[in-house]
Amino acid sequence: MQFQNEKEKVLIVDFxxxxxxxIARRVRELGVFSEIITPKNIRKLKKYNNIKGLILSxxxxxxxxxxxxxxPDELFKKGIPILGICYGLQLIAKVFGGSIKPSKKNREFxxxxxxxxxxxxxxxxxxxxxxxxxxxxEDAVVKLPKNFRVVASSKDSKLTIIENENKKIYGVQFHPxxxxxxxxxxxxxxxxxxICKIKKKWNINSQKTRLINExxxxxxxxxxxxxxxxxxxxxxxxxxxxxxxxxxxxxxMVDTGLMRKNEFKDTYKIFKKRYNLNVKLVDCSxxxxxxxxxxxxxxxxxxxxxxxxxxxxxxEAKKYNNIKFLAQGTLYPDIIESRSSSGSKTSKIxxxxxxxxxxxxxxxxxxxxxxxxxxxxxxxxxxSLGLVKxxxxxxxxxxxxxxxxxxxxxxxxxxxxxxxxxxxxINELIKKNLYKKIWQAYAALLPIKTVGVMGDSRTYxxxxxxxxxxxxxxxxxxxxxxPKNFIDSISNKIINxxxxxxxxxxxxxxxxxxxxxxx
Length: 519
Ligand code: XMP
Prior knowledge:
Helix content: 25-40%
CATH class of the largest domain: Alpha Beta
Number of strands: 20
Bound molecules: xanthosine-5'-monophosphate
Largest sheet: 9 strands, mixed
Strand order of the largest sheet: 2-1-3-4-11-10-9-6-7
CATH architecture of the largest domain: 3-Layer(aba) Sandwich
Strand content: 15-25%
Radius of gyration: 26 Å
CATH superfamily of the largest domain: Class I glutamine amidotransferase (GATase) domain
């Protein structure tokens, strides 16, 4: 599906920083449409007239080598306002004749404080007496380029903010996009509204109507099929498309038997009864369990579940005639990650399961209405489509489901034990108002038994592992610090209510080095 290009946008050139996505989010949060583009793709643009501002991201490369990444020279001469961040600042300095040095003395990592040298539009309402910013750089600009002036310094680097007001070109050595930079959003506000003079136009609710119209114009009277999982992405996709084409949308829910307790049947009811969607529930739990018998290797499990899912979905789809489109809940981060600046995909740590293999095999066109949005934007869209809160704010759940949370052998009994434990954990989080503070929480079952004592008897039962992490996008994560009273009570609640568990442990590793899921 081709989306109409927004007229006014800010382009963020991704030089490979870990936090480029955050720049796009900050700009969008301020009501301005932004897109991330690679240095390679910006060379392919034929016209620049809808670019109202350019932000050059940070990145691991250095301009001190002979060959370095840049953007077409003419973009520096077009009068388009430019803000360079970290590597972006160094690139600006290089292009305009400054000097940059890799330097042990000037490198800064972590917190730094700014010292004001000149007033600037970029730093209006930002620079305070002791302004904290977040640094992460080895190279530093050591000589100002011609016609630039310094706006602020830090203790270790003199040229921390520089500007050429006439050309509207600005550079900052620190990272205003990260939350550790105090009031960093003000830098973007000033750049967008005082320097680029862009108007606030982007808001998710206005996008809803556009999306619905575009789906209608693309699909016309054809049929669309969608795998509905009950997660927020596929649910929002289904509601959006349903608004556009109603009964021509067919939703299929494949119950692998590896979902959380009651989740699938409840979701089915919500979509069938409340939203009146054309939805079919296919119960395949026995089939999945059979195929997974005695399979303990994580990747094998993932492959079996993924392939079987596609097979079942395909078989169901064949029961309908003339389907032309497959709808998927692809999000903007998925798109960015598959075309990172270095061209290298984020290394495949685990084979993620989705229905991406389908269109080729089934000759379907892809419909991906959420591919411009971040998860939190999808949730705003979900809200405005009336999606129930229990689905709209649900934690992410992996495609292979509990299959990768039951370490070792997967049996019907173990699935049941885990479903009960997870149900208690999640409900307690909701009751204690902790659920929304956590990116993702779940219970897992370890493949070892340990000894316990309950009443007067000795027990020899399973270990339940609890995991709860905070994260922005699942790429990095921190374990959640529970209040002591919560952690004190949760193991008793689980052990007292779930037969088969006599020990509960809490996972305190971050990502990296661990991953969010265990397999
Ligand atoms: P990891 O375990 O790689 O997880 O740190 C990061 C995020 O991705 C989710 N995840 C998956 N999602 N299919 C999915 O749709 C998968 O196979 C899959 N594996 C992991 C995980 O739950 C977390 O949110």
